[in-house]
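If you are new to this repository, start here. Below is one unmodified record pulled from the training split, so you can see the exact layout before writing a loader.
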Amino acid sequence: MVHLSNKQIEDIASELEVGMDCYIHKKTGKYISIPNELSFGTYSDIYDEEDEEDDDDEFGDDNPFKNDMKKINEDRKSYLYIVPMDSRESYKVMEDFTYTIDDDNVRNVLQKALNRPKPFANFKYDLDDFPDFRKKYFEFKSMRYIEYVKLFLEYESDDENIDDENIDDENIDDENIDDENLLEEE
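And here is the target side for that same chain:
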């Protein structure tokens, strides 16, 4: 995996933050962003010539992402898909932010918002009442996305360095693996 600059990492984090899926070319470091409702991650084809007419219907005559989708799909192994934060991780970002707030009133309002049904909507709604903290939250959230991308890339880089040929699956005794200890190590 090619090394990415801090600027590239920040750009990718920003794309993820606004709901884009990002695919990084493993050799060039260039990335492609596609709205996540179009790409469906790495688990399905993001471009299918048979569905080309459907794409045209949804976006008019030109799907602005069609060429990028086709490029990724034709050479998928050359791209690393950055898995977006799931809702649990996004919730944790909001929760962690509340612990940084010195104002007891603001912290309590936002923590209560997280404990009500629809915590994301309630948090954002209540945060609007505190413009200074709203700005701080978005700065905090951006920094967490940058950290997330860095950790993801570090993990993927470590994963690429594992020599699969030296792993002997036949000698792994699943019954003797202690799941409790594995979870504690993480």
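Two things worth knowing about this chain: Residues 42-47, 162-186 have pLDDT under 50 and may be disordered. The first strand starts at residue 20 and ends at 25.
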